[in-house]
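Expect chain and fold; thus:
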Amino acid sequence: MSDKKKINPEEMKRSWHSQQEDILKDWSEQAGCYRWMHERAYQNYNKKNMRYAIPVIIISTVTGTANFAQGSFPEGAKTWAPLLIGTLNLAAGLITTISQFLRVSELLEGHRAASIAYSKLSRNIAVELSLPADERTMSGIEYIKQCRGDIDRLIEQSPAVPPEILKAFSSSILNVSKKNPMGITPAFSVPAILKLEPIDVFRTEKDEEERMVKLLKAQDDEKKYKEQILKEEQDKISKAIEDHEKKRNSIIGEYDLENKLKILEQQTQYEKNMEEKKKNMTLKSLTKKMTKFNKILIDDSSSDDNEDPLEENVKITIHDQTIPEREPQPQPTENIITETVDNIITDISNNSN
């Protein structure tokens, strides 16, 4: 298992402050300016090195060849040829000594290395600031300490920028020139050797106020977001209820329609049955029914006679005592038969009409 402590993204995000990012931004821009100046200085010293090195190479080659060819010189040239060769050797040595005294080769390599180092530093800071706070390699204060050490080391080890390079940078970028005809001050930070700038003092009160404003804004945004989500959910629920009610009403309507259709079918069937009964009720069937009713009437009357033989005796005895005889009352069965016959006759008359 690794002994490295795992970094929480939330803690990493909180460990970066806007003031730290501003400081690193200024350092990255200043490192870019140093890279530009050291690159121009390297080009100038490279030209100077060529001016010193090429004549020395030519003179050394000529004098070396002349030393080997001294024996083949004419007799008149043998007296002054060594003087000329010696003078050329002296000039080559003098040029080499001046080049070493001016440290052209040393400054050439120094400016080249400084240009590469400043370019690397500026690029690293720019990449680090371009990442989200929770994806950066370290916290803000630790990265500032690291970059401050790198900048201090480069300033100490890098050769001084020549005045003509400073003037060229100021004239081509800061002041009015062909590249900057309006003389607009660039939005990036420049080294203090080019332009003095006031110190930006961090104010805790202002920072706390900005934090409170951001916090209130974040809370307001969160509240609006929750209200929006709640409204969307309520709209979904209302729509679902409305769809359910529509579906329910549709089902109830279909059910009522089916019941009405069934009732209508039953009523139609009943009317058909009644029509068929009326059609089937002919004179012949009525005659048969009346015959049956007549038989029932006769059977009922005969059964009454057989079952009540004492009733005549009672009547006779009453006649003998000169009591007026009451008229016989119609039996309930006779009334029912009479009503039935009347109904049948009425149906026959209706069918005939």
